[in-house]
From TrEMBL:
Superkingdom of source: Bacteria
Protein known as: Lipoprotein
Organism expressing this protein natively: Paenibacillus cellulosilyticus
Amino acid sequence: MKKLILLVLIVVTLGGCSEGAKERPEEISQDVWDAAIQYTLMIDMRDAETGENILSLSEQAALSGKLSAMRESSKLSSEEKEIIGYVDDLAMQKLCQELDGKDCASRRSYKETMKIISTTFGNEALHPKNFRVDSLVKLRQETAENQGSGEETESLTKVEKYMKSNNISLTAKDVQFDMVNNLDKNFVLAGTAELDDYYNYGFDSDMEADYFCVRVTPEDGSYSDRWYLYFHRDSFNALFEKLKQGNVNVITTAVIPEFRFEKNQGLMAQVVRVEYY
């Protein structure tokens, strides 16, 4: 808990932005307003001791899924969805930066999105002093433990539990048949994984230095439904070593970055989170 308090916010130069906190519009509930501020701080803050993001890659993916679900919720007003949408874009840009070192091509840049958010809330509202450690603890509990309870949980499959705990609604099958409309969106793929050397026929071959490629046959599919997934070597080294020994059953959170997408491409995506057994 002590370490969680030692945080620092990345300073972004935002010309022309208000320094004070902005007043909450009546159309936006206090809960949504506060949540948007806390999620923004989580995304943008770093640990003061290590300089690393306070959210791990899997936590970032879970938060992105949570924000996407909120953005599509019928319970939110259009004004609330707009604000959550800004934070959702920020979360996705952070994921793209972590995975590829640059922004997603299909969305506003990270800096532009932060400028909009800062203008909406005011810089004072986004000051590190306003960060609540309990909000981070709650997110981590949700990420690790939000598996449901009782008879409902017992009736869910392992993949359904994974999707529920990570706030993801899209499956690989959904994306497979509507790829263009699901770029930069997290989806779940579960199946049998094996190492592959697909670089020269898939995404840019220069990815091989930083990524290893895995061929995954979906548990509900066949040979023709195989996906080629790209895993960041440093982030998923333990899985790489296990795959060198043979096939592994996996459940992954993957995304097709729009800037890598090519018309009529095969089933290829990058992985942001994985469970294997």
